[in-house]
Design brief:
The chain is an alpha/beta fold. The chain folds into 2 domains: 6-38 and 109-243, 3-Layer(aba) Sandwich (Rossmann fold); 39-104, DNA polymerase, domain 1 (Orthogonal Bundle), CATH 1.10.150.240. It has helices at residues 6-17, 39-52, 61-64, 70-82, 88-104, 114-123, 137-146, 170-179, 193-202, 216-221, 231-243; strands at 26-29, 127-131, 156-157, 186-190, 205-209, 226-228. The chain has a 6-stranded parallel sheet, with helices on both faces. Helix 9 (193-202) links the parallel strand 4 (186-190) and strand 5 (205-209). The protein starts with 5 loop residues before the first helix and ends with a helix. The model has no long low-confidence stretch (mean pLDDT 94). The structure holds magnesium ion. The site of magnesium ion has 8 residues, from loops. Magnesium ion is lined by residues 30, 32-34, 66, 191-192, 195.
Length: 245
């Protein structure tokens, strides 16, 4: 692959926000598709539930809705198919059905090299804050085993912590407050355009890792400061990014 210009990306980031400095000491990290390779099962469960309901849709389109709350996704598709809003009852029942399908599928693996990336942050004293739109207890509970010491429980933003989900900047702004860090002291690690938009609007240096089928161009359009093809690539480049080289 072509050389990645980290220095240029950092300069463009500073100019865009009017910052004079970039001193990363906190990493704000998404969960689904970033730490856990769960999106293939989420998209399969969404597609199965919506198809049963008579909603025409493709499995891949659900990668684009990643980061939205389940209720917002259901409302959006019901409106598109049936030209009416979803009822509160439908939002609850359909999300429960989707979660049930997800739980039928095989155990989710971690994204390759995500453990190496998190270990590097721990070893170099970078504060980690989890920032997920999910409230799914099964996935949140396993992080302690998959990433030992990686995500302290008092440094987690979940669907229960926020009023607005991604792409609103609130989740990442709240994460900065937990980390006691300014935006120019934070990197955000994301895999989905709506999450990228949220992190970039909050003012962090936002790194998109394309772990699914979404093209790079969608990540740039959402406001990514850097787009990388794999978590391994990010782990390799972290020393450079954190030093601001
Ligand atoms: Mg994600």
């Amino acid at each position: 692959m072509e050389d990645i210009d980290i220095h240029g990306a950092i300069e463009r980031y500073k100019n865009r926000h009017g910052y004079t400095t970039f001193n990363p000491r906190a990493a704000l990290i998404d969960m689904d598709g970033t730490l856990l390779d769960s999106m293939k099962w989420h998209t399969k469960a969404w597609h199965r539930m919506m198809t049963e309901l008579g909603v025409e849709c493709t499995r891949d389109e659900f990668y684009l809705y990643e980061g939205m709350t389940g209720a917002a996704t259901i409302d959006s598709l019901i409106r598109r198919a049936f030209h009416r809003p979803a009822t509160e009852q439908e939002k609850i029942e359909l999300y429960a059905r989707k979660t049930g399908y997800f739980n039928e599928y095989p155990r989710v693996e971690i994204v390759p090299d995500a453990d190496r990336m998190v270990k590097y942050l721990i070893d170099h004293g970078i504060t980690r804050v989890l920032v997920t739109g999910s409230g799914q207890p099964s996935n949140l509970a396993r992080l302690d085993g998959d990433f030992p010491g990686g995500f302290p429980h008092d440094l987690r933003i979940t669907s229960h912590s926020v009023r607005f989900g991604k792409p609103h900047p609130e989740p990442y702004i709240k994460a900065m407050e937990l980390a006691k860090a300014n935006p120019w002291e934070c990197i955000t690690i994301e895999n989905a355009p709506l999450g990228v938009e949220s992190g970039a609007k909050a003012g962090a240096f936002t790194i998109a890792v394309t772990t699914g089928p979404i093209p790079d161009s969608d990540m740039w359009k959402a406001g990514a400061d850097l787009v990388l093809p794999s978590m391994g690539e990010l782990a390799d480049l972290l020393p450079c990014i954190l030093k601001g080289c």
